[in-house]
Amino acid sequence: MAAAPDWVREDAVPAAGVGSGGLRYELVSDQLDLTGAQPRWYRRVSYTVQRDSALADAGQIGIGYQPDYQRMALNHLDVWRDGRRLDLGQRAHYARLRRESDLESGLLDGSLTVNISLPDLRVGDRIDYGFTITGDNPVFGRGYYDSYAARYDVPLSARRLRVRYPDGLPLRWKVSAADFRQAQTHRDGIAELLLEADAVPAVSTEKDTPEGFDEHGRIELSTAADWRAVSEWAVGLYPHGFGDPAVARAIGAQLRLDPADPQAAMQRAIAFVQGDIRYLGLEMGANSHAPHTPEETLRLRYGDCKDKATLLVALLALAGIEAEPVLVNSAPGADLSARLASPLAFDHVVVRARPKGGAAVWIDATRDRELGALEARAPLPFGLGLPVRAGQSQLVALPYPRAKTPEVAVSEEVVLAVRPQRRHALFRVSTEYRNGMGDNARNLFEREGAEAVGQRYLDYMRGFYTALQQVAPPTLQDADPARLRIHEQYRLEWPAKEGDLVGFPLFQLQDWMKELPRTERRAPLALAGPRLATHTVRVRSDGRLSVRGQSDEVANPWFRFSRRIEMSGGDVVITGRWERLALQIPPRGLRRAAQDMARARELLYFEHDFKADPWSQIGGRAWLFAWAGLAATAVLLLAAAWSWRSGGIGGMLYTPQATGARLMQSRSLRAQAWLVLAIAGVAAALMYGPPTSASAALAFASSLALLLACLLVFVLAMWGLLRASGLPIGVRPLGQAMVAAQAAPMPFLVGMALALSGSAAWAASAGALQPQDVPALLVVMLLLPFAVGWTWISVWLGVAGAAAASRRRIGVATMVLAALAAVLVFAAAVAVYLLRRGGN
To answer: Is residue 596 part of a domain?
Structure first.
């Protein structure tokens, strides 16, 4: 304990302010003196307890420092109660603790924390304390670098920073927070800088803000003129290779670092440093920024980022490959271009190797051992860096190219079975990870086992299919070190009454394609996940599948999503492709990105109704026979016209009365009439399908006999009607005329029979009409009226010609006969249907 240094200026404490969480912070004041042999930093904090729930936090104070090169003195520890100051300096409890905040990350820096527990604290008390820390890290030499938070997570009545420094010290500063007042004075060779702000609001960190984005604002101090000065400072810390030739020869021989094969040598060197040198950082004193020698790291077989980078650079030099360390900031979203030039802008070190005649290779030596081709490995997501090499004056951009191959690829196969009462689907899901994207999954399998992981996966999948069941636990395949594959199997069943609409989500891509906020933001929005991922769903079914091919794409500067739906080998194939083109979305682009993401998310889900689509199930065969039937009818009508012109039986279609009059005088016409009757009879019988078995052949013959019997009945009925009306006509000429009249329906019967050969399920079974029967039925509906009407006209006029009788009297008789014929035809059709059904 000691009194405050005489150069410290007493700050006025604001009388009022806004509280948060039961505490009201009135003052955070930092004062820095750079005029002595060592830097001295004084801090004063004042806050008031407003609620009893905050007593626990208010009563604990922690002050950290580095004992290797710093001394800490407590200047005052007071509580103000009812306008009186209570000195708690001698009454408080003190504990000096070794708290390594980064121990779990493998970093030890040797810092200590003085923990102070305040006694007898009450609501309404104002705690006011001040301390001084003397000393600075010797690694910075004659330079000075520091950084202070400008704002905090709680509101603050006053924030101040005062700096005293010699006029000749090239001190630079930068404040990245708004509303700070700046003042500078010079007196007796000493410059004084004052930065202050009042009523500083609390900082509320927005969701999904990149870790490196500075929402609190930063007050930076630096004596470096530019980045060249920082690089030159770092060059003095880093060894330029092995200092011991014997060690270099031994490790070079062990790793076969042959300059004649630099590519292979580089891969072996990287694999050795990443895999054989474990990560551990002892960052005490100067080693916070200065690496150990390559020999020391080899001997210990451990090191932090700068140790491993230095060792890798030295190994690459043995293979004739030029390389250097590069200082970077590992926090996603960190913007080095907005920082003041200072070593404190960096917290990580990587390596840039430049093989002769090849492109630069960027390596993070602290990664787990990477395998596969160098160009196929995941890029370093650090944005900008400062190479540690003589003459380096600018930050350089680390390349972040688009991925050429997917880092995560899901292949999903769905096999659907559409049964009359129940439906079921089998899902086979295979996921392949590259570039370390599957490390978490591998660790999960090792830690929990396949059964427990399978339950996790099943719970996840049931978010899409509620009744899903797991066929077997997932399996992990990692025989190829560069790839990791996981295989899953599921089964889904549902009753037919629930319908056949099935959805196919691209669930893996949905994990990274989160809904984006549409509200205004101050901070960028972080984008996570792989640079490139694909999800392909192949759906096959025992029913016929048909979808219209389509392609959709949503793209902007930050991400791209595309989906393609197509038919392939009778299967429906849905392919989704997600590309992350940036690490974050700036606030000004968020509205557009949110709109694009909403559109893309709608494409993640594809639904298909697997209920039979009649038109899609008809098939080409049925249409082919339908068109063939129409074509045959047209050809036969043309043939009949040619026959009519030649005086043949075709005249029964076009001039039936005249042809009927010539019928009894022409043996040729009578022979043609019987031939036409045979063709028409066979065509009529074939309308129920060809005889494909012995029983079907018997039914076919029965159909012909029944048709001849019907014709005989019609002749006798017509003869009776005409005789009853007083028109004498013989049975023979009447029968010949009726037989010849069958030339009229014959082209239509042949066309209908041919069309029905494509599908006769409607006539050959008692089942419902099938989609493939539609083309044939359309042909029948088109041709049948022509067949019936043309037959009636041919019979009417043909008989009138054969009997040399009045067309009116014959017309009345044929109309009565037509009514009777309709009944008989219906009865005959039913009989033939029953016969053919029994035959099949």
So the answer is: yes
